[in-house]
Amino acid sequence: MAQLKMNTADTVPKILRIGIIQGGKIVEERLVRKRESVTIGQSSKNTFVVPASNYLPRTFTLFELTPAGYVLNFTDSWDGRISLGEQVVALPALRQAGRAQKKGELWHLPISDKSRGKVIVGDVTVLFQFVAPPPVQPRPQLPPSVRSSLMQNLDWMLVAVVAASFLVHFGFVVYLRNIDWPRKPDIEEIPDRFVHVIVPPKKVEEKKVEVAAATKAEPEKKKSGGGDGKPKAQRAPRDPEAEARAAAERRARLAADVQKMGVLKLLGAKGENGTVADLVRGGDVSADADKVFAQVGGVGVAGNGAGGGLRSAKGAGGTGSLRGGGSLRASGPGEVGTGEKGAEHAVKAMVKESAPQDVDGSLDPSVIAREIKGRLGAVKACYESGLKRNPNIGGKIQLRFEISAVGKVTSAEIENDTMGDSEVASCIKQRVASWRFPAPAGGSVQFSYPFIFQASK
Do residues 82 and 89 make contact, with C-beta atoms less than 8 angstroms apart? Predict the structure, then answer.
């Protein structure tokens, strides 16, 4: 049995046992189990790292593995002793005896598994020898009764809380991503048909108020002694009660009609002591209206002065005045008009759609046309404002756009303007400067776009 063990030990190749001594202290000792070249130096890639050594290069192959076995490499400045079999020889003697071969600046000394020795390099001493590889010690492990598994170390309460929190947060994120959040649209993105609904155009309404005459005016002036042209002797006898009833009815009808009027209603023509009552007091509808209205404080009756407007009242301390009364007039006997204001010129503009021209960039022309079409309402508003000043303007305004990499309009210059209205052009440039387009994929984009304006009749 002992013989078998010795034979087995002889067949197993020996390995290097190397120790590093620096400054009189053992720095490292190791068994090189794998048969390979052994390097030494300051680099971290070496087999043995020796820091702060001025005698060793950054990397030096100390034991080189060849097909014939290991070879010890050393230089002329190194010292040491090597045991070759039963003989211990110093490195200088090996060089002189020719047992070491010189290749370049290095000496190569073949060594066997029975060799051992030391190599001195300045303050570093390398001890080596070949030993039989010891058996690999198994990794120490605790007995199964002591070892604990991962499942046993878990805090199940904490795991449940973390799992519930994850599910709640994940579900909330999914819910938020599926919500269609409302976005407040820009005024320029609203189609024109909705803009007209939100902001209805102003309409000028002409109001005409007519007051029915209580009695018809006689075609001729009353003659002295009677207004029917007949001699006094031929007239029918007067009925005072019938005349009083007729006069009361006329006053009631006239008061009711005047209360419905627009301008005269503001004069406070209500009640028994109102202006209308003064006008028809006594049943005399042919009384002088100027004298009656002159008694109303702060109100004057329209005269024949310049402008045809109401003038300050005479008497009763009136100080009011009305400028620009327009065409407030008496339409005839028993008929009063409230006046007519000149109708505001209603305009309706048309902006014809077009297509972008000379597109220089990666933005799709169809995308440009769609974005501008959705904002034509702002351009149309500038043109309608100009039509109110001059209803004869029209033509084409061609703008040169420059869109930045984020889709913002950085420049909008007029290339062609056949309209000739600087205010409309300035308004369009101001509106266009605030537009935003989709961000181009390849950087800034330049293009031209013509706007064709025409007044709708």
Answer: yes
